[in-house]
């Protein structure tokens, strides 16, 4: 299914396991793989919430938990006046900041043991 490698997370200041999953493309990047104003656009590109939905595989509870952690990470950096993940996603002209926040949310979820 995939290889597991040892790594070091400088943010958490500890060793981590990194699993390489084969057969899945990497997350979409600025080359047109990110979108706004829709969960999935006509090209199949996803917004932040659309990516969470796809990764949750139909488990709405898991999707909701992931969205809550992502919103918490966003609010930690941008303040409590950010009302939702979709509104945050749609406020950006490219994927740089949204993907950075997804990365920070992953670290936060790991730190919480989720």
How would you sum up this structure, described in words?
With 114 residues, this protein is an alpha+beta fold. The protein has one domain (28-111). 44% of the residues lie in helices and 14% in strands. The protein has four helices and two strands; from the N terminus they run ββαααα. It has helices at residues 48-56, 60-78, 85-90, 96-111, and strands spanning 2-9, 14-21. Strand 1 (2-9) and strand 2 form a beta hairpin. Helix 1 runs antiparallel to helix 2 (60-78). The longest helix has 19 residues, at 60-78.
Fraction of residues in helix = 40-55%
Number of E-type strands: 2
The mean pLDDT is: 78
Helix- and strand-based class?
A: alpha+beta
Percentage of residues in DSSP E strands: 5-15%
Rg? 15 Å
Side by side, the strands of the main sheet go 1-2
Question: What is the 3D shape?
Answer: globular
Quaternary structure classification: single chain
Cα(first) to Cα(last) distance is 22 Å
Task: List its salient traits.
single chain, 114 residues, alpha+beta
Set out the fold topology.
Blueprint: E1 2-9, E2 14-21, H1 48-56, H2 60-78, H3 85-90, H4 96-111
Helix pairs in contact: 1-2, 2-4
């Amino acid at each position: 299914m995939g290889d597991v490698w040892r790594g070091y997370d400088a943010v958490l200041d500890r060793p981590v396991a990194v699993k390489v999953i084969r057969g899945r493309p990497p997350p979409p990047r600025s080359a047109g793989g990110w979108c706004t104003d829709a969960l999935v656009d006509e090209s199949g590109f996803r917004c932040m919430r659309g990516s969470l939905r796809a990764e949750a595989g139909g488990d709405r509870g898991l999707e909701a938990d992931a969205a809550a952690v992502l919103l918490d990470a966003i609010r930690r950096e941008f303040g409590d006046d950010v009302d939702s993940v979709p509104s945050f996603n749609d406020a950006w002209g490219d994927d740089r900041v949204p993907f950075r926040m997804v990365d920070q949310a992953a670290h936060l979820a790991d730190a919480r043991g989720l």
